[in-house]
């Protein structure tokens, strides 16, 4: 009797999970459409310049020109990284925050 109850419970649990996955994959019209992110003009100019440098044929350039391009790419990438106004947390900081939350709560 105990085995049949266990098997019946497992069957009901497994069947209850299938309709959720089927409806999520079966109806793509309800999926939210991601809005394009507006990129500021100065950032777009820098990204265009990076794409131009990437598309250049560097085989006929001298070593000083290649060095200048590398420096320019580094400057552009650092300015793009600095213009991003995000908050960055290291793994150690996250662990400390979680431990403090556990201790306080």
Largest sheet: none
Give Rg in angstroms: 27 Å
Helix coverage percent: over 70%
Estimated share of beta-strand residues: under 5%
Give the tally of β-strands. 0
Shape: elongated
Question: How are helices and strands ordered from N to C?
Answer: HHHH
User: Which stretches are low in confidence, meaning pLDDT under 50 for 5 or more residues running?
Assistant: none
Would you tell me the structural class of the helices and strands? mainly alpha
Question: So how many helices?
Answer: 4
End-to-end CA span: 44 Å
Mean pLDDT: 80
Protein name: Seryl-tRNA synthetase
Keywords: Membrane, Signal, Transmembrane, Transmembrane helix
Signal peptide: 1-24
Organism: Flavobacterium cheniae
Please provide a written account of the structure:
The protein has 105 residues and is mainly α. It has a domain at 38-84. It is 71% helix and 0% strand. It is elongated and about 85 Å long. The two termini are 44 Å apart.
Summarize, please:
The chain is mostly helical and 105 residues long.
Question: What are the main properties of this structure?
Answer:
105 residues, mainly alpha, 4 helices, 71% helix, transmembrane helix, Seryl-tRNA synthetase, transmembrane, signal
Write the layout of secondary structure elements.
Elements: H1 2-26, H2 41-55, H3 63-83, H4 91-104
């Amino acid at each position: 009797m105990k085995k049949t109850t266990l098997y019946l419970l497992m069957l009901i649990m497994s069947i209850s999970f299938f309709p959720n996955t089927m409806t999520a994959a079966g109806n793509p019209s309800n999926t939210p459409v991601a809005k394009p992110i507006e990129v500021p003009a100065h950032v777009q100019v820098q990204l265009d310049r990076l794409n131009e440098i990437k598309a250049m044929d560097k085989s006929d350039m001298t070593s000083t020109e290649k060095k200048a391009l590398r420096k320019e790419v580094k400057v552009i990438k650092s300015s793009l990284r600095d213009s991003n106004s995000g908050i960055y947390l290291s793994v150690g900081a996250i662990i400390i925050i979680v431990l403090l939350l556990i201790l306080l709560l």
